[in-house]
Amino acid sequence: MRRPTPIKPQPGQESVWDYPRPPRLEPTPKRLQIIFNGVTIADTVKGYRVLETSHPPTYYLPPDDIEMGYFYHAGRGSMCEWKGAAKYYTLTVGDKTAERVAWYYPTPTRPFAPIKNYIAFYARAMDACYVAGEQATPQPGGFYGGWVTNDIAGPIKGEPGSSWW
C-alpha cells in the first residue's frame, strides 16, 4: 500500500501530511465557537488542537467555556491508543438531541494531560463550528472528529479510498 500524494500547501496552509504520528497536542489561540440548535454552546480562545498525520486538527475546548447544562453523560466509552480512555456526552438544546456527539478524556496519557476533561465535538452534528471565524466542515467519514478549514491541505483521512492510510 502506498502513501497518498500530499497536496502542496498554498501560502498560509499546513499540510496534514506534515503532522506527526504519534499525534502532537498544542494550544491554539484561535477563537473556537460551536452552535447547536441556534444556541452558542461553546466559545473559547483557550482551546487545544491535536495534530495527527493525514487528519485535520481535532479541537478540544475547556469545559469552563462550554454551556455544560446542555450535556449529559452517554453510555459506553472508547479507547485511543495515544490519549487513553474517552467518555462521551449527549447534547440536548430545546427539542433537538445529538447522541454521543462530544468526548473527553478524564485521565489522559501524560503527553495529553493538558486536555484532561476538555471536550471535542463532532462537527457534523452541530449547526456550525468556527475556527477564527471560518465555518469548519466535518472530517470525512463517520468515525473521525477533525474540523476541516481552508488553512489545511490534504488529502484527508476519511475521504473515499483512504481506509488503508
Beta content comes to: 35-45%
Q: What is the number of domains?
A: 1
Helicity level: under 10%
Q: What is the first-to-last residue Cα distance?
A: 8 Å
What is the CA-based Rg, rounded? 15 Å
Q: What's the CATH H-level superfamily name?
A: Domain of unknown function (DUF427)
Mean of pLDDT: 96
Name the strands of the widest sheet in spatial order. 4-3-11-12
The CATH C-level class name? Mainly Beta
Question: How many individual β-strands?
Answer: 15
Describe this structure in words.
The protein has strands at 14-15, 24-28, 32-36, 39-44, 47-51, 58-60, 71-80, 84-93, 96-104, 119-121, 128-131, 134-135, 137-138, 147-148, 152-153. With 165 residues, the protein is mostly beta strands. The chain has a single domain, classed as Domain of unknown function (DUF427) (Metal Binding Protein, Guanine Nucleotide Exchange Factor, Chain A, Beta Complex). A hairpin with a 3-residue loop joins strand 7 (71-80) and strand 8 (84-93).
SSE map:
Elements: E1 14-15, E2 24-28, E3 32-36, E4 39-44, E5 47-51, E6 58-60, E7 71-80, E8 84-93, E9 96-104, E10 119-121, E11 128-131, E12 134-135, E13 137-138, E14 147-148, E15 152-153
Parallel strand pairs: 1-15
Antiparallel strand pairs: 2-5, 3-4, 3-11, 5-6, 7-8, 8-9, 9-10, 11-12, 13-14
List keywords for this structure.
0% helix, four-stranded antiparallel beta sheet, 165 residues, Metal Binding Protein, Guanine Nucleotide Exchange Factor, Chain A, mainly beta, single chain
Give a quick rundown of the structure.
The protein is globular.
